[in-house]
Automatic annotation (TrEMBL), chain A:
GO terms for molecular function: sodium:proton antiporter activity. It comes from Actinotalea soli. PANTHER family: ANTIPORTER SUBUNIT MNHG2-RELATED. The keyword Transmembrane applies. This is Monovalent cation/H(+) antiporter subunit G.
Amino acid sequence: MNETLDVVLDVLAAVCLLGGAVLTLAAGVGLVRFPDLLARMHTATKPQVLGLILMMLGLALRLRSGPVMWMLLLVALFQMLTSPVAAHMVARAGYRTGKVRKELLVVDELTRDLELAHAEVAQAEVAQSAPDRAAQDEADPPARADQDGDGPVS
Amino acid sequence: MIVVVIICAVLLTISAGLALVRAEKGPSMLDRTIALDIVTSTIVGAIALEAAWSRRIDTVPILVAVALVGFVGSVTIARFASVEPEGEGRVLTREEIAAAESERLDAETTALESSDPEHHGGPAQGEVRE
């Protein structure tokens, strides 16, 4: 009975290891084939993390010892915690340094929101500078002649 | 088991090789960072595979350490990434390096000759020459 259980667990472990290796290969292929930074970043996180989790599962099924299982769980947990952080940082740096190819994006909410925010800030500055200037002109009439011709201070 | 381990090792090797191809080609620093991230994860996978094959548990702490530290590199590079000039992120071929070098030498000699004809093109001020 115990031997059959061993064989079953070993086969399961082998399947998990194979799946993990195939997903890692998929990540490598995607890395070479995908056209721009964001797509490559996405291969580096999704198939990569799932592949690593499968390999850890396979290793845990093969080793079958309690404390080691916890450490492998920790490895999977760290991967799931750290790879989104790394991907986010890379994407942010890529967007800011202009590595994003706009024509490949289906939706670009960040650019839209940034433009909206810039427009709002500009409106607020115009609205703020107009009463300021009126108040300044009232308080200091002789200076008005000097200020004529200057644009609004913003 | 040995067949599975060999197949997995081949797949992992191919994956690491493709990641290295991207690290060589990658038009920007960030692409290379991602590629090296994948290489790190592949190394974790390879260590796990070896541990599964020989049923050893002493390499498992290495997995924890590499999984924890692996992302530090990409985050650091991403934090300090700046706009790179066009065409800068590429490994030059031998001919291009030779052309650039000869161009530089030509510019240097013409600058040297034109700077001070009376003194037979002596070295520029403050320049140390043997």
